[in-house]
């Protein structure tokens, strides 16, 4: 589990709700019709905006915010360097025996293409297309939460307008103006909370997850193509270390000593 996501999510909601309750009247922030307008309207509009096949994956997509581990870049570099050493000693065909032991489907595909003698330019084109399709799929999943973030405040404003219209229609009752205004503003609050405390952070975390995966895939492409070109394993290592953040690169160097 990604504890940073869980801690951030809980901290956001607990601190905001606690501050609301500190006023002594938490019930003043609860209004069922406002919830129906904001939450129901935003979810409904999001459903309309996305195909059913994409909506079916929304649970798994949201789950990945908390239960997706970052790629092991150091392990990938070490594995690719070991493949480079083996290929240099025994030839590219020797890597075929290692394909089944590789966890990554993308890596297995890349190795198999090289073992099959595919032209290097074609290998890169195929793998780049695979990365592009991967990015597009993740972007589509992220767009569901982007849409929810867009519609949340919009329906909050619609609810506010509905409340104001109802309040202005009852101006003869001066005592009802204050409570009426409060209820009208609650929908705007709900819309902002839905967007800023759920949908937008979720979308940003999904984008970060996707970027991590793409970086790992790009690392694999460069490594496999370097092996196919017959480059020295030491050169392959130096080329792939560029993809490691400074602290991770330092840890990698310490492991190699």
Percent helix, as a range, is: over 70%
Counting DSSP E segments of at least 2 residues, the number of strands comes to: 0
Structural class: mainly alpha
Distance between the termini: 31 Å
Radius of gyration: 26 Å
The average pLDDT is: 89
Q: What report would you give on this structure?
A:
The longest helix has 52 residues, at 177-228. The protein has helices at residues 3-21, 32-49, 52-55, 58-67, 73-90, 105-115, 120-168, 177-228, 233-241, 246-256. The protein is elongated, with a radius of gyration of 26 Å. By secondary structure, it is mostly helical. The chain is built from 10 helices and no strands.
Descriptors:
257 residues, 10 helices, 78% helix, 0% strand, elongated
Brief description of this entry?
The chain has 257 residues and is mostly helical. It has helices at 3-21, 32-49, 52-55, 58-67, 73-90, 105-115, 120-168, 177-228, 233-241, 246-256.
